[in-house]
Amino acid sequence: MPNLLSILKPFAAILYRKYEELRLKNLIDRGLVIGKNVYINKNVLFDSSHPHLIEIQDNCRISTGARILSHDATMFRRLGATRAAKVRILEDTFIGEYAIILPGVTIGPNALIAAGAVVNRDIGEDMCAAGNPARPYGKFSELLRRYCKGITEKNLFDIKAFDNGELSVEEVRRLCELHGTIFFKGLHAFDPHYINTDLGELEQEHRDALATLWRMKASLSQSLSETNDEA
Q: Which of 72, 93, 109, 197 ranks highest by number of CB atoms within 10 Å?
């Protein structure tokens, strides 16, 4: 059975990719704006009544189950009218799983919306927001710095090794027990969720980013060593 599943997996990924392409093409034809290098995970709901009022800019990532709404019929029976307003998700913004973005909201750039958040007001540049209603709780850049400190050559692994079975589920569990937190580099072997993306260029960007991270860590380590020697 595992061998059969491994054979069928690429075909299932191709079929799902085609379904997502058709679904998004329909929304884009009706006015949904999606920039370059955008990642849209499964079961993301865009307001089908007014997709022309939704804009997702470059390098954004929209996680599983997120809801992006551009109209509100709450008072339709009382007022005889439906409210509609633009939603703009600006460059390099991350939307967490099952977050709900309500009409009239602008998020980012370089912002993070936590899983399950309900965003009913603007979230500005470099902000992390969570809760219902969502409120800022910190800087996205500070979160990235903490992650950078946590990545080492010992707790960083290739996601393709997991995809192809070289890195087993049991080994991943053991590594999490050993390190507490582990990190994966690279792109999945089959991933239908990238939109308007050159995957070769994206992988190179990831490699360049990691190379920059290692240089920064080496430079910091050398500076600390020199400071200790002087002391």
A: 93
Mean pLDDT, rounded, for 43-51: 94
Residue in the structure block whose two tokens are 């860590």: 217
Q: What count of Cα atoms within 13 Å lies in the side-chain half-sphere of residue 177?
A: 6
Q: What is the pLDDT of residues 11-26, one digit of tens each?
A: 776 777 778 788 889 9
pTM over the 0.90 mark: no
Domain annotation covers residue 104: yes
Catalytic residue list? 71
Residue 175 within any structural domain of the chain: yes
Last residue of a domain, one of 76, 107, 138: 138
Work out the angle between the directed axes of helices 199-230 and 140-150 (0-180°, nearest 10).
70
Cα gap 121→106, rounded to integer Å: 8
- Let me know whether 36 and 124 are in one domain: yes
